[in-house]
Amino acid sequence: MELSEDEVKVTVEEVLMPFTLVPVPTDEVYTVAQAFQCFLAWPRDLVVSNPSVQTLKHTNILNF
Hints:
Layout: E1 7-11, H1 32-35, E2 39-43
Antiparallel strand pairs: 1-2
């Protein structure tokens, strides 16, 4: 599936409302419960990042 400019690829990691319809359904996935741990397209403006997830930043290592 090709994404449009206003969509991103996401995975659902937590389901709070299982019967809620996903905004970009596919033939196999149309509820949030079905989207659990699957990759699917999602409108960029509806993506909520998890502030408790931290990313590691690259640091330079000095060689002596």
